[in-house]
């Protein structure tokens, strides 16, 4: 399996107003394989979001580097939709920042929104949408630029259980239909067990070394009487790994 993204001796340090420094990563080496769903879990404040921001170029590394030539897009924790734009125009916004909107691109956006069951809401505004609908638009906006790598920063954390599970299945259907590598940050261990192929478990910062484990569930994933026990067992295993002392 080929590597699509990796970091070499990556270091990120925050500088405080008092003139001090707060290292988040030190000499971090991370490898993401093409086509996998890779998840990162760890305690709050360990640097998970900072890592995504550094990978996509929103935050420069202090030392080391990010190595990848693949196009990336990011799905944020909050949809961050522009209130004066419709669903369709919000979906087109990210692409419009890169290149002119053509008829073909508009048709691609409409088809993508149709796949996400938003055909009847193309001309609705964000205040007219449920939270689940807003997050679908957030996802569609990122997918429209046809990224090879999709970075996801706790995108389902604010949703109720039923909507969250539905979006999990929507994401997996898109992942199966189109070649895509996904890097997911999440606090929900059941979500990680359901979606991911591999999981990195970050300790408290500064992060230098981390444990990595494979998810032991077959694909395609589904929740039914035959698979619920295995899914819950994997969730419990991740919880136990989180509790183990790490360097």
Overview of this structure, please?
This protein has about 250 residues and is of the alpha/beta class. It has two domains: about 5-70 and about 150-245, 3-Layer(aba) Sandwich (Rossmann fold); about 80-145, no CATH class. Helices cover about 35% and strands about 25% of the residues. It has seven helices and nine strands. The protein has helices at about 50-55, 85-95, 105-115, 130-145, 160-175, 190-195, 230-245; strands at about 5-15, 20-35, 35-40, 65, 70-75, 150-155, 180-185, 200, 210-215. The protein has a six-stranded mixed sheet with strand order 5-6-7-3-8-9, with helices on both faces. Helix 6 (about 190-195) packs across helix 7 (about 230-245). The radius of gyration is 19 Å and the shape is globular. The two termini are about 30 Å apart. The relative contact order is 0.18.
Please provide a brief summary of the model:
The protein has 247 residues and is an alpha/beta fold.
Provide tags for this entry:
three-stranded antiparallel β-sheet; Rossmann fold; alpha/beta; six-stranded mixed β-sheet; 2 domains; 247 residues
Integer average pLDDT: 90
Q: How many helical elements?
A: 7
If you compute it from the alpha carbons, what radius of gyration comes out, rounded to the nearest whole angstrom? 19 Å
Low-confidence stretches: none
Q: What is the CATH C level class of the largest domain, in words?
A: Alpha Beta
Q: What's the CATH H-level homologous superfamily of the largest domain?
A: P-loop containing nucleotide triphosphate hydrolases
Residues in helices, as a percent range: 25-40%
Number of strands: 9
What is the domain tally? 2
Q: Architecture of the largest domain in CATH?
A: 3-Layer(aba) Sandwich
Largest sheet: 6 strands, mixed
Strand content: 15-25%
CATH topology of the largest domain: Rossmann fold
Straight-line distance between termini: 29 Å
Globally, the shape reads globular
Widest sheet: strand ordering:
5-6-7-3-8-9
SSE order, one letter for each helix or strand: EEEHEEHHHEHEHEEH
Find the structural class using helix and strand composition. alpha/beta
């Amino acid at each position: 399996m080929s590597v699509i993204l990796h970091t070499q001796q990556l270091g990120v340090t925050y500088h405080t107003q008092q003139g001090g420094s707060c290292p988040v990563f030190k000499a971090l080496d991370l490898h993401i394989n093409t086509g996998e769903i890779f998840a990162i879990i760890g305690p709050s404040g360990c640097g998970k979001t900072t890592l995504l921001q550094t990978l996509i170029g929103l935050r420069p590394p202090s030392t080391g580097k990010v190595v990848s030539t693949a196009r990336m897009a990011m799905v944020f924790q909050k949809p961050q939709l522009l209130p004066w734009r419709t669903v369709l125009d919000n979906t087109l916004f990210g692409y419009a920042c890169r290149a002119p909107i053509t008829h073909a691109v508009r048709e691609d956006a409409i088809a993508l929104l149709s796949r996400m069951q938003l055909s009847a809401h193309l001309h609705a505004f964000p205040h007219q949408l449920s939270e689940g609908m807003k997050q679908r638009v957030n996802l569609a906006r990122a997918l429209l630029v046809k990224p090879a790598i999709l970075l996801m920063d706790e995108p389902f954390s604010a949703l109720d259980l039923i909507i969250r599970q539905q979006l999990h299945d929507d994401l997996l259907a898109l992942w199966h239909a189109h070649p895509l590598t996904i890097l997911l940050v999440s606090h929900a261990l059941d979500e990680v067990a359901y979606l991911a192929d591999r999981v990195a478990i970050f300790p408290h910062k500064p992060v230098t070394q981390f444990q990595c484990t494979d998810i032991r569930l077959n694909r395609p994933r589904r929740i039914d009487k035959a698979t619920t026990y295995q899914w819950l067992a994997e969730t419990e295993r991740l919880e136990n790994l989180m509790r183990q002392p790490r360097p």
